[in-house]
Specification:
The complex is a heterodimer of chains A (305) and B (290).
Chain A (H helix, E strand, L loop, with lengths): L1 H32 L6 H22 L4 H28 L8 H22 L4 E2 L7 E7 L2 E6 H23 L1 H11 L1 H6 L4 H27 L1 E2 L3 H16 L4 H21 L5 H15 L14
Antiparallel strand pairs in A: 1-4, 2-3
Helix pairs in contact in A: 1-5, 1-8, 1-9, 1-10, 2-3, 2-4, 2-8, 2-9, 3-8, 5-6, 5-8, 6-8, 9-10, 9-11, 10-11
Chain B lengths: L13 E12 L2 E12 L3 E5 L6 H8 L7 E8 L2 E4 L5 H8 L1 E3 L12 H7 L2 H8 L3 H5 L2 H20 L15 H13 L5 E5 L7 H16 L4 E5 L3 H7 L2 E6 L2 E6 L1 H5 L2 H8 L9 H6 L5
The chains are: A mainly alpha (305), B alpha/beta (290).
């Protein structure tokens, strides 16, 4: 019983890492311009496609060691996806920034549909498989014929995520860029008066969010081995749920929310019904919105009268 | 006729020149053909009754409003910057204009110290090459960071906030928050500091400390100060030059003493003397002999 639980814990953490990375993009954008970037799930999907394409190109060139190949693909995917993230902000959101509040939201949904159709047209609607890059794993313990196993891929996913989150927190906490992001989050006008280039800071926020979503996309491709143009929707909405659960606008909240959503999904599939795993996740969204709208780590909004 | 433009200080070149500034919002004329000059190492006070257009002038200076007509020139190191054509963040960066608001706008989620470091953003951002050098801890960034910390410390001492450097900005008492705003503006290394009612809500002791701080910014730092203020004790005590607005027009301009005795100013503040006696019954009620 214990080993089954442990196995699901590992699976859940891996899944949670992916959701957490996407959720950071939602929460950062919400923090800085107060809108939900509904195209963010599509950015993730594009990241997974770019990683798939890069893997195929690499493997057609010749043999690389798996870790080396993953590193190259990681870099390429982050760069290209970041360009997508930057363009989405530049084209669909910046012109509407001073418009009424719903306009960027509608524009985000439009962008999401556009990106989905774009990939559907250029890559086809059929699911795309990728040969497993990495095999094997470590047997943690074996008991009554049931082995608790953590694959090398899972180790890479979890380590990479932890590393990225540490690095990312350092950027936000300690660098001038992170400080200017926090300044823009609190008072954009004042930040501009202190010489912060607000437009550029917002662009960089989208770039960073997209780069993290790209990593998530790469992990998804490696982990599941099959992608299609529609994966962005469900993953995006779940990551959004994670961001809300953690407290939208809070970075540690997004990470925590991602892990929790991953665990809920894994355990629900294991102990209850796999068919209803998405229902479980969205039940969490409903419950959070009813009982704790500010999320686990979010600050309650105090309205000044 | 009133005294307009009779202020010409010796040895203090012009710093900010506003020429024929007009700002219309639809049919409302908020500023009407306003021209004035703020000089280097001068405290210039912009005063006038409520709704005279003082804050609108500030908003034009700092790029919030694009003036309908007019030119605003800022001189810095021999170069002229036309503020009405510049983007907001460049005004601070290149022309060296810093400003505070009537209501306090600190970054309340950051510490006192961080508020001062954010103000030195440009300097640090350039040194860190978009944070890359910052993360790697390259020497170039280290030394820039050290300078930034020194400047922040200097202003913390100057404003008496050193002991509270690591407190959240929102936890400071009101008067200290006001001082922190000024310290933060000074950390952008401005040539001209624009303060919108810095003494509002301060008690007499705090207001006295503010006077000393502003005088020191002018004298020791050699920075020009442009001040909107309602508290006449502050205005008359520390300013070198007073510009009076009423309904968006300049009605007087000169040294504090001259302005105080200008009849236009008295009229604007106290209303016209209408030479009309009170009706007898009211006069009787208030105990005046008709």
């Amino acid at each position: 019983m214990m080993d089954y639980f442990l196995q699901q814990l590992i699976n859940g953490l891996t899944l949670g890492a992916v959701y957490g990375l996407i959720a950071i993009g939602y929460t950062m954008v919400y923090g800085i311009i107060g809108m939900i970037n509904f195209a963010h799930g599509e950015i993730f999907m594009i990241g997974s496609f770019i990683s798939l394409i890069s893997f195929l190109i690499l493997s057609s060139i010749g043999a690389f060691s798996a870790v080396f190949a993953i590193l190259i693909v990681l870099l390429v995917t982050m760069i290209f996806t970041a360009v997508f993230g930057w363009s989405v902000e530049r084209i669909a959101y910046r012109p509407l920034r001073d418009s009424f509040k719903l306009a960027p939201l509608i524009s985000a949904i439009g962008m999401s549909i556009f990106l989905q159709s774009f990939v559907q047209v250029f890559q086809g609607a059929r699911p795309k498989p990728l040969q497993p890059i990495m095999h094997g794993g470590i047997k943690l313990l074996e008991h009554d014929g049931f082995a608790v196993q953590i694959s090398y891929l899972q180790i890479i996913i979890i380590l990479l995520t932890v590393g990225l989150m540490i690095g990312f927190t350092a950027v936000i906490q300690q660098t001038p860029l992170g400080r200017s992001q926090r300044a823009c989050e609190q008072d954009r006008t004042m930040a501009a008066l202190l010489g912060v280039n607000v437009d550029r800071t917002i662009s960089l926020t989208f770039v960073m969010g997209a780069a993290l979503a790209a990593v998530a996309g790469l992990m998804f491709t490696l982990y599941y081995g099959v992608i299609d143009f529609f994966i962005g929707f469900l993953a995006g909405v779940k990551a959004f749920t994670a961001a809300v659960l953690g407290g939208i606008g809070s970075l540690p909240g997004a990470m925590l929310g991602g892990v929790l959503i991953g665990l809920i999904e894994a355990f629900w599939s294991a102990y209850f019904s796999i068919a209803y795993k998405d229902v479980a996740v969205f039940m969490v969204l409903v419950l959070v919105l009813i009982f704790r709208p500010t999320g686990l780590l979010g600050r309650p909004e105090v309205e000044k009268v | 006729m009133s005294q307009l433009d009779n202020y010409a200080p010796v040895g203090k070149p012009a710093l900010l020149t506003v020429e024929h500034l007009t700002m219309r919002f639809g049919g409302l004329v908020a500023i009407d053909d306003l021209s004035f000059t703020a000089h280097e190492r001068d405290i210039t006070a912009l005063i006038g009754p409520n709704g005279a257009g003082k804050t609108t002038v500030f908003n034009c200076l700092t790029g919030f409003y694009k003036p309908t007509v007019g030119r605003i020139t800022m001189k810095r190191e021999g170069q002229d910057y036309l503020l009405e054509q510049m983007e907001g963040f460049r005004i601070t960066r290149l022309a060296g204009v810093a400003r505070t608001f009537q209501n306090i706008r600190l970054f309340s989620g950051m510490t006192v110290f961080e508020n001062l470091i954010v103000a030195q953003h440009n300097h640090l951002m350039n040194a860190s090459m978009f944070s890359i050098a910052g993360l790697l801890g390259l020497p170039r960034y280290r030394s820039a960071e050290k300078e930034a910390i020194e400047l922040a410390k200097f202003w913390l001492h100057k404003t008496g906030l050193y002991e509270r450097a690591d407190n959240p900005a929102s936890s400071l008492p009101y008067g200290a928050q006001r001082r922190l705003e000024i310290a933060r503006a000074m950390c952008t290394k401005p040539r001209l500091l624009c303060l919108d009612e810095p003494a509002a809500g301060l008690n007499p002791k705090e207001s006295g400390e503010l006077n000393d701080l502003l005088l020191s910014i002018r004298t020791d730092q050699g920075i020009g100060v442009l001040l909107i203020e309602h508290d006449m004790s502050v205005v008359m005590k520390i300013s070198d030059h007073v510009v009076v607005l009423d309904y968006g027009r300049k009605i007087s301009d000169g040294a504090p003493y001259d302005v105080r005795n200008d009849e236009n100013v008295i009229k604007a503040y106290l209303g016209e003397d209408e030479d009309e006696d009170l009706p007898p019954e009211i006069a009787a009620d208030v105990g005046m002999q008709p």
